[in-house]
Amino acid sequence: MNDEMDKSIFERSYCPITCSLDLLGDKWTLLIIRDLLLGKKRYQEFLESPERIATNILSDRLKKIETAGLAIQQAYQQKPIRYEYVLTKKGKDLKPVLQALVQWGKTYYPGTKVFEAIDR
C-alpha cells in the first residue's frame, strides 16, 4: 500500500482496535447497532430507546452506519416514501462484540438490565 491509500483507509493507525473505534467509538453508534440487533428498524423506534438520542445525532449516525456498510436502508412505504434499516452481514457480525460488552457490564455493573428483542 502506498501512503496516499493508507490515509484513506486508516484514520489514525493500522491497529485494528483503533480502526474499529474510529467507526464505533462514539457514544451512540453501538447503541443503534444494539437496537438493530434487537429488531428495531425504523427511525421512530430508535428515538423511543431509553437513552433518548437527539434526532440530528440519530440521523447522522444512521448515515455513518450505512456508509460503513453495517446496515442498508430499504423502503417499506412508497407514498410518502419511508425507510427502515436492516443490518448487513458486517453489522450482524458485531453481535458477539455486543454480547461480550453485555457480559462485562453485567459483571461490573450489577443491577443493569438487558433489553429484550422486539417481537414482529
Automatic annotation (TrEMBL):
InterPro entries linked to this entry = HTH_HxlR (IPR002577), WH-like_DNA-bd_sf (IPR036388), WH_DNA-bd_sf (IPR036390)
| All copies of domain HTH hxlR-type, residue ranges | 15-113
Q: Domain of life of the organism in this record?
A: Bacteria
- Alphabetic keyword roster: DNA-binding, Transcription, Transcription regulation
- Please give the Gene Ontology molecular function terms for this protein: DNA binding
Pfam families per the record? HxlR
- Asked if Transcription regulation is a keyword of the record, the answer is yes
User: Which named protein is this?
Assistant: Transcriptional regulator
